[in-house]
Amino acid sequence: MAARAHEGLFVYGTLTDSDIVRILLDRDPTTETATLTGYRRYGLRGRAYPGLVPESGASCTGTLITGLSEIEEFILDEYEDTDYYRKDVEVTTASGRTAVAVAYVWKEEGECEGEWTLEDFQARDKPPYVAMVHEFKKEIDEVVRKRLEGSGTEQDGGDDEGSVHRAQKSYLEKGAVQST
After folding, report:
1. Active-site hit among 73, 80, 135, 154
2. Taking a C-beta distance cutoff of 8 angstroms, is the pair 151, 145 a contact?
3. CA distances from 135 to 58, 167, 180 (A)
4. pLDDT tens, position by position, 119-161
C-alpha cells in the first residue's frame, strides 16, 4: 500500500463540529486548529453546510484532522459527496507548523452566498442535520461492511454508488435546511 502524501484532512464546516465527527468515525480523532490561505468558506444557497472556494487574499480557519485510517477517510469522502473535490493544500496550524492536508473544495461557485459560521449552523440546523448524519452513518457502515467482505461492488450487483447519499438527499428534500 502506498504512503499517503498528506498528513490529514483540513475541514472547515460541519466536520468542525466534534459531535458530527464522533458520529461518523465512532471516535474523537486528533485535531488542531489550522488556517488555509488562498481560500474562503461561503454559505451555500439552501444548504446547512458551507463550500470552500479559491479566493486570492482570503483565508479560512478550520480544523486539521490527523491519524485517520483509510476507511475513515473513505467515510469522510462519501460524507462530503460529489459536490466537492479533494485538493492537496498547505495549512498552518495554531502552533505555527505547516502541514500538507486534503481539503474538500466546492465545485459550484455560483451557489455560494454570504458567510457560514459553525455557531449559526449549531443554532439553526444542527438537530435535523445530526439526524441525517445518523442515517448516513447506517448506510456507510453497510457499504464498508460489504467492501471488507469483498461484496457490494457494481460487478456483483451491489449499490455502493449513491446508496450512502440517500439520507442526504432525503434531508434536502424534506426542507430540513433553513435558507440563510
Report:
1. 80
2. no
3. 35, 6, 24
4. 999 999 999 999 999 999 999 999 999 989 987 555 434 444 4
Q: Specify whether the CB–CB gap between 87 and 101 falls below 8 A.
A: no
Q: What is the mean pLDDT of residues 45-53?
A: 96
Contacts made by residues 18-22, CB under 8 angstroms, sequence distance 24+: 19/126, 19/130, 20/129, 20/130, 20/133, 21/65
What are the chain's domains?
8-173 (3.10.490.10)
Q: Is the dihedral of CA 122, 120, 164, 102 positive or negative?
A: negative
In angstroms, the Cα distances linking 2 to 70, 75, 101, 102, 137 are 11, 19, 16, 16, 27
Give CA–CA dist 31/16, Å, rounded.
9
Which ranges of 16-165 does DSSP label H, i.e. alpha helix? 18-25, 70-80, 118-124, 126-149, 160-163
Active site residue 80: yes
State the amino acid at position 144 in one-letter form.
Answer: V
From residue 38, how far is each of 15, 35, 89 by CA, in Å? 20, 10, 10
Q: What is the reported pTM?
A: 0.84
